[in-house]
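re: that complex we talked abt at group meeting.

here r the seqs, copy pasted straight from the sheet so there may be weird spacing, ignore it
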Amino acid sequence: MLEYSEKVLKEFMNPKNMGKLEQADGIGKVGNPVCGDVMWIYIKVEDDVIVDVKFQTFGCVAAIATSSKVTELVKGKRIEEALKITNKVVAEALDGLPPVKLHCSLLAEQGIKAAIEDYLERKKIG
Amino acid sequence: MREIYLDYNATTPVDPGVVESMMPYLSEYFHNPSSLYTGSLRVRTNIESAREKVAALINSRPEEIIFTGGGSEADNMAIKGIAFSKADKGKHIITSSIEHHAVLHTCKFLEKMGYEVTYLPVDKYGFVDPDELKKSIRKDTILVSVMFANNEIGTIEPIKELAQIAHEHEVLFHTDAVQAVGKIPVDVEELEIDLLSMSAHKFYGPKGVGALYMRKGVKLTPLIHGGSQEKNRRAGTENVAGIIGMGKAAEIAIEEMQEEERKIKPLRDKLEEGILSRIPEVIVNGHPKKRLYNTLNVSIKFIEGESMLALLDAKGISASSGSACTSSSLEPSHVLLAIGIPHEIAHGSLRFSLGKYNTKEDIDTVLEVLPDIVERLRRLSPYWSHG
Ligand code: FES
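got the structure back, here u go
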């Protein structure tokens, strides 16, 4: 096993906010060009605040831990704030990742961004 | 927590009898085998008796065994050694696309030096097609190297047929038999093999020692210069304790091989059947029958291997995976891709490789915990909609 921090393993063992969100206001579907993993993030937004968020991830320990972490970080945040969350912030919240696994946290950042973009897109149309 | 070790193709625990045989050579029998006093003579004599045992394991002559620093060195020595010594005859080598990296990366290296390499494709079971080999042999082909049994999926290649084809064209035949030697009978005479690589730690011997069998009359350029050890074929003071341990491991393997198969195969089959009946959407990789009796490679769809390994590890179970996420290159296993498994299914591959210390209880435990692990990860997966 790679040398993951205790926080990564804990998050991976007990992921938060997992699953689908029925009637999501925005869905971000991103894939990892490096290793082929996939992350879907669902958000529910009220008055520009992310009131609920869930994820589904097909990927490694780091991918699952970072998706879980990112959902925790954005929950209750205004979308402008959520957009500021970078993969570095996610990785740091987990006490870092092995270098070869940094790209997995990128997926988490992109997933949230894509979900918010989808939300904004729908809002424009709606 | 007791470890349930199911990764014997990666390495095996050292047999206690092997440890015992090695101990004196780490203490009182420390002498350099090349020296002239009594202590050295004893070490020399015992190295030769280890050589006889290793030779007996593959039915070769003792003088055809060269001790090396492991299986990878044996592969390097065979391929580079033949390539260098036959460069004036030709610079074309044929191998398969599912070789161990010790062979593949050596071939890549030779390509950079101006050699040409043909990588034979394999079918969905991992078999090299003898007709493909026939078609690939050219006037300037100097070596054919095809592995005996694949480390990931366990498929056993038609070695004799391939060797005969090489010989019909007067080309040497090498096989990386690291996964076969000690597990199944390997007879270099009967199979007409010219060069064969093996590794002690795959059959309950120590790490850091292996051997290259080289048929009498075959010549190669040595890789390591600096002494006349191993009849000028591999310089350097011998890894005495390692060699003695490898000899002992060979002796035990000859004695126990049949019994091991009788014991391990039913456990592997039980694991396979248990997984297939308890978990939906699973495929077994490799040939159903012509496969090492200890190896089970499955692809569990919609989930990823490293996460499975982490959850298995948390339960004390050690296995391995061909997932891209488990490799430092972030590429999925080249073996699984070569047998036509798509990238995302290679992702969910798990390899269990059993050995002589496994018990029925080990398998029961895996069958108890694996379905929950799979279920848990599938619930997380965007591709799994059945739950
Ligand atoms: S998602 Fe594949 S390495 Fe992390």
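couple things i noticed - The two ends of chain B are 31 Å apart (CA to CA). Chain B has a mean pLDDT of 96.
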